[in-house]
UniProtKB/TrEMBL annotation:
The keyword tRNA-binding does not apply. The lineage of its organism: Bacteria, Bacillati, Bacillota, Bacillota incertae sedis, Candidatus Coprosoma. Residues 37-185 form the HhH-GPD domain. DNA repair enzyme that has both DNA N-glycosylase activity and AP-lyase activity. The DNA N-glycosylase activity releases various damaged pyrimidines from DNA by cleaving the N-glycosidic bond, leaving an AP (apurinic/apyrimidinic) site. The AP-lyase activity cleaves the phosphodiester bond 3' to the AP site by a beta-elimination, leaving a 3'-terminal unsaturated sugar and a product with a terminal 5'-phosphate. This is Endonuclease III.
Length: 210
C-alpha cells in the first residue's frame, strides 16, 4: 500500500499544499460550534451564519444566555435550526459551567455534548490540539471508497480506522483537509473531474465507467 499511499499524498500535496479547515473561527469554541452546525449543510452557509452569530454573541457567556428563537433566526439558512439552536446554547452553558469556558482536549467530554459526535470531535481535536485524528464526512467517505482505500460498505468509523492505518500518524490532520477539499472541488459526487485527475488509473469509480 506504500506506493499507492505516496502517490495519493503527492497528488494531494500538489493540489492543496496548504490545506486547512474552511470553517471560519477565531476562538476554540467557535470551531466547535461551527463544526456542529455544519452537519447536513455546507461550510459556506455555516460561515455566513456564524459571522453574524459570533458578532452578536461575542462570548460563550453571551451565547449561554441567548434565547433559542434569537439563535434560530440567525442560523435558519443552514436547516434543522430548531435543534441546532438548542445545541448552541446547551454547549455554551456546559463549557462555561464545567470547563471554565475552554474547549478541552477530552474526547469523551466533547462527545457528550449535544450535537457533537465523533466526526465533530475529530475536527476539533485535530485543529485545536494537533491530535492525530481524521474526520470522515461525506467527501472523505466518497474519495476513500473511490480510491480503494475503503470498501463500499464501510461505515465512517471503519473508514477512519483504515485511513489511520494507511497514512502516517503525523500527516492525518493535513490528509483529512486535503481529502475533504479533493472531494469538494474535484472528486464530486456527480460529474467528478476524472479527465484531469492524476489518480484516475487507481480509481475504482473510473473503472466502472470504462
Amino acid at each position: 500500500m506504500t506506493g499507492l499511499t505516496k502517490k495519493i499524498e503527492n497528488y494531494l500535496d500538489e493540489l492543496f499544499p496548504n490545506a486547512r479547515c474552511e470553517l471560519n473561527y477565531t476562538k476554540d469554541y467557535e470551531l466547535l460550534l461551527a463544526t456542529m452546525l455544519s452537519a447536513q449543510t455546507t461550510d459556506k452557509r455555516v460561515n455566513m451564519v456564524t459571522s453574524i452569530l459570533f458578532k452578536k454573541y461575542p462570548s460563550l457567556e453571551a451565547l449561554s444566555k441567548a434565547k433559542p428563537k434569537a439563535i434560530e433566526e440567525i442560523i435558519k439558512p443552514i436547516g434543522t435550526y430548531h435543534k441546532k439552536a438548542l445545541n448552541v446554547i446547551e454547549i455554551a452553558k456546559r463549557l462555561v459551567e464545567e470547563k471554565g469556558s475552554k474547549v478541552p482536549n477530552d474526547r469523551k467530554y466533547l462527545e457528550s455534548l449535544p450535537g457533537v459526535g465523533r466526526k465533530t470531535t475529530n475536527v476539533v481535536l485535530s485543529n485545536l490540539y494537533n491530535e492525530p485524528c481524521i474526520a470522515v464526512d461525506t467527501h472523505v467517505s466518497r474519495v476513500s471508497k473511490r480510491l480503494g482505500l475503503a470498501n463500499n460498505q464501510d461505515d465512517p468509523l471503519e473508514i477512519e480506522k483504515k485511513l489511520t492505518k494507511i497514512f502516517s500518524k503525523n500527516h492525518l490532520g493535513k490528509i483529512h483537509h486535503q481529502l475533504v477539499l479533493f472531494g469538494r472541488y474535484h472528486c464530486l459526487a456527480r460529474n467528478p473531474n476524472c479527465e484531469n485527475c492524476k489518480l484516475k488509473n487507481i480509481c475504482e469509480y473510473q473503472k466502472t465507467k470504462l
